[in-house]
Give the backbone structure.
Amino acid sequence: RTLLAGMLLSAFALSGCGQKAPEAAGASAPVAEASATGGDVKEYVVGTDASYAPFEFQTDKGDIVGFDVEVLSAAAAKGGFKVKFINTPWEGMFATVNQGDRDILSSAITITDERKQSMDFSDPYFEARQLIAVAKGVSDVKTFQDLKNKKVAVQTGTTGDEVVQKLLGKTNANIKRFENMPLALKELETGGVDAAVGDNGVVINYVKNNPQHGMVTVEDTKSFAPEYYGFAVKKGNAELLGKVNAGLKAIKADGTYDQIFNKYFGAK
Ligand code: ARG
């Protein structure tokens, strides 16, 4: 009896049941086998604005790397699919997934109710918050409210853009919009604006890596709500969403997610 139980157990383990995407239940054996041999694994095209260190950025050689890249790649390995990252401008990115030019968007995208109308999001994989950057020493900005009559740089169409719009008014000329976050932060460096507002991880990373420009960050947890990043797929693509979520669940359960998190942000 013990021997039989042991045999059953190893058969269970070999069937690769831990890696199966949920919708594969009816065809579990062939799917698991294909995944194991790499034979029939689907490759999905991933859109990412690779100007967003440490989440997605390019090495000198042009490789796209970063926290999001590692999380999605690890989830793909567990979820039984492959991913290919393609640098994609943030502006217009959401349309690419609906047109079918991109299968997945992985770009530190905050899950919002408005965006959920046009795309489906994976389970959240990261918590973020807006953060203000100002010039060191000379700025009197202590809270978000202090930006009321100031010039503020943001990345167009981001949640940073949205919060600043709420404070200053959508059409206020004091909002300077840029196509990517490094350009918004450069505008602060060169004195074109009084502040920049963006996702905390990116702002912290930039300020830390550009000490010669004398910028500091100003936190305001009362004004800025927590935001959650998700991977986006075309609305209704339940098959792919199921695979992404199954992969995410697996890497959260087996410690891979924590390993990647610690590599980029230090222990929680
Ligand atoms: N989290 C913010 C948003 O969803 C900013 C994301 C920008 N991402 C990027 N890769 N440029 O609006």
Q: What stands out?
A: Residues 238-253 form the longest helix (16 residues).
